[in-house]
Amino acid sequence: xxxxxxxxxxxxxxxxxxxxxxxxxxxxxxxxWGTAELIDDGIGYCTAPSVVVDGNGNGMAVxxxxxxxxxxxxxxxxxxxxKGWTDASTIEFGSWELLESPAIAADTNGNVTIVWSQNVGPxxxxxxxxxxxxxxSTPEVVQDxxxxxxxxxxxxxxxxxxxxxxxxxxxxxxxxVTASRYVQGEGWGPTxxxxxxxxxxxxxxxxxxxxxxxxxxxxxxxxxxIYEAWANEYKIGEGWGTAHLVEDVxxxxxxxxxxxxxxxxxxxxxxxxxxxxxASLLACRxxxxxxxxxxxxxxxxxxxxxxxWDVGTDDDxxxxxxxxxxxxxxxxxxxxxxxxxxxWGTAELIEKNDNNAGTPAISLNDKGGAVxxxxxxxGYRYSxxxxxxxxxxxxxxxxxxxxxxxxGELPDVASGGAGTTIAIWLQHDGITQRAGVNTYLAxxxxxxxxxxxxxxxxxxxxxxxxxxxGTTEPGATLSIGGLIAAVDDLTGAFSMNLALSEGENxxxxxxEDISGNSRSVSITITYENPVPELWTxxxxxxxxxxxxxxxxxxxxxxxxASKDDLETLQASLDELSDGLAAVRDDIQELYVGLDSADDxxxxxxxxxEALLISLASISESLNITQDLLDETVxxxxxxxxxxxxxxxxxxxSGFIMGLIGGILGAAILIGxxxxxxxxxxxxxxxxxxxxx
Length: 692
Prior knowledge:
The protein is of the alpha+beta class. Helices cover 22% and strands 40% of the residues. It is built from four helices and 47 strands. It is elongated, with a radius of gyration of 56 Å. It starts with a helix and ends in a 9-residue tail after the last helix.
């Protein structure tokens, strides 16, 4: 009877709907979100969707889908940035039944790994890897082949295609938390038990990894009469530690813990715990190098129970947790943010609908923001909503992100590079469950990088052009002083010659990216025109040259006059020398006369002595004359040297005339003496013959 009623209800929904065709609702979709779409093949109902986004903004969705006969298969569809979704494809081989939802992880390069549990007699853990350009690998068994059943897998990556998968495994006696590590180029390693020997069975393990390959795993354990939150850590170079309680402060039963980890190895775990009579939300931080801290309440509202929760972190160590909590009338969506500097903030409501909301999920992006998604009842059905968190504004307004008449359930969300966020959920189309998605492309509000390397602002130059060079974001449009400059497509380098005006020049360099964001750098260059100063210096040099030429003309004239005086002096010296030679001849004759004049010997000796004194005086005069002549020659040399440089007017006329006068006076004196001697010789008696 109930089956017939269900069939009748489905038929009624089909008639009221539009037969497999999505119909827009009356609510408007947020402008930054795309159009909601269905990505499965529509053959059978879908279950447990998940999504990841890589560092380039490409996404991968995975879900389980009934094949219409007897099997639930692992299905995927890839989102290619700027192109959209590919057709759904099956990556699971065989026709065995899928027990649990697949787990998925992606690294920054677009490599994706999916891990799931599949019934092959026992349940075994399988995986398959997607490599860009190669597609999906053949599924392989991750756990050691045995009769033990592995279920509820979780997987995480370090961002460089190294992974760790964890799951619970039943060995006929115990349920253990088990792990295997995947190393790039080597594959999956041996299975390791990382949590065992419990009074009750562990369940729902979840793993997170940092960028170096360290990991933290959390799960819950039944420790009658309550559940407890446990954890274990994997450290590179050391391996797995010892499983332990996450907290032992509160004695209430714990719900499934959720974990997120930043690039530095710091993890945040949140879980529901019954404190008194109210289910509250607790958080605990694991700090790399320090270990676990104390658990903290992230909400203080005891009005109603916390019902569903999730947590995410970014690379800077910030974390945000979201949860659904009753206010006694309806369930609302709340959020709280953790920062390393301030700790947890104050819980706040991030939706404003008067109807129930639940099953929230959150993802933090590489810009410091976050996207939270959840389902919310509008009086007729549950729809998928989202809200955005930015560091500058905080939480925005909640927005409807799907346009279908059917009900939306179990949303998941992931963020990656290029500001891409993808939400996925189960969407009823009136007949069956489909995989619905919507993509949010964060508006680029970041100005492009811009650096001007040359010239340095404030510099002064005397050249009329200057080269402006630096780097900016590749693909940006760059203008320098209002002129468009070429930008290297790979490096963003630019270089451009620019003419300068005389005086101070303010040059504005502006880069604008394809989203219209711009950044400007202003530099000031002073151009000092060297031509006027050089012209003034040239005129001064010409005037100096004219004075030098005039001075040189005078110097050359004086030099020529000095040369004439020197020639006259040389002629006078020649005559004086001839007179001296005649005096010497006379003296010789006198000596001859003395040899023959015995009678006048005494008188002659006296006159001879006087004559010798006169000759000494004449000789001294000749020496003085010679000194004056040498000084004249030196002075002429100085004049010649001064002829090659600017100097004072030099006239040697007076000096030379004085010298010539002296020389002539000496010559006259010598002549007088010679005349006197000759006269005395004429008056003397004949010299006596020489005595024997």
